[in-house]
Amino acid sequence: MNNWIVFGIGFLAQLLFSARLVSQWFLSEKAKKVETPVLFWKLSLLAAILLFTYGYLREDLAIMLGQFLTYGVYWRNLRMQGEWKNRNIFFKILVTIFPVAISAYIIFFGTLEWSDLVIGENLSTWLISLGILGQLIYTSRFFYQWYYSEQHHESSLPRGFWILSLLGSAFLFTYGCFRNDPVLISAHFFGALIYLRDIYLIKEDEEAPEPLR
């Protein structure tokens, strides 16, 4: 497939991921504390579909692994916010059928072999390990968020989520530089700025004096 089309899919995915962060950032700035809008999870599901496709076309195990692991967490957060039943039928069909459809395609029609993901041009073992390590750290933020939200019975984005985001993003930015991947480079450079801002907002909120009763 033409590289411009492949990169176009990747940038569209990152545009949706960026839109979720910008919407969350805007609402958080307005409220002066970290907010978790419904749109954050809706855009996450749609972007994950596109980024997994991009990772498949790029034969990038790290990208595919990250989207595969977090897809269910996005869906669970929508349910925790009581929004799943309010979504339109097209959205529900898309995010439900996609994992099954893409798995069936890879198994029965895909030409990508396991060796293609771990052995390739300009890919060394240490670079693959760096990408997987970065993706595991970056992905672990959503499992931490999921655990935290289940414990508190509400969907929220705690400090640990943003710290793991920043750490994983640093690894993936470095990995993207070595892989000459403009999608990863741009996404994790600008994303880090929002992660830092949310950490600061949480710190400010914790240090704010209790309102007088």
Describe this structure in a few short sentences:
With 213 residues, the chain is mostly helical. The chain has helices at 3-31, 38-57, 61-80, 89-108, 114-118, 125-152, 159-178, 182-207. α3 runs parallel beside α6 (125-152) and α6 packs antiparallel against α7 (159-178).
Q: Can you summarize the main beta sheet?
A: none
Shape: globular
**Which stretches are low in confidence, meaning pLDDT under 50 for 5 or more residues running?**
none
**What is the residue-averaged pLDDT?**
84
End-to-end distance: 64 Å
Number of domains: 1
Secondary structure category: mainly alpha
Q: Please report the number of helical segments.
A: 8
Number of strands: 0
Instruction: Determine the fraction of residues in helical runs and give it as a percent range.
Output: over 70%
Order of helices and strands: HHHHHHHH
Round the Cα radius of gyration to an integer and report it. 18 Å
Strand content: under 5%
Folded structure, characterized:
With 213 residues, the chain is mainly α. The chain has one domain (3-207). The protein is built from 8 helices and no strands. It has helices at 3-31, 38-57, 61-80, 89-108, 114-118, 125-152, 159-178, 182-207. Helix 1 (3-31) runs antiparallel to helix 2 and helix 1 (3-31) runs parallel beside helix 8. The radius of gyration is 18 Å and the shape is globular. The chain starts with a helix and ends in a 6-residue tail after the last helix.
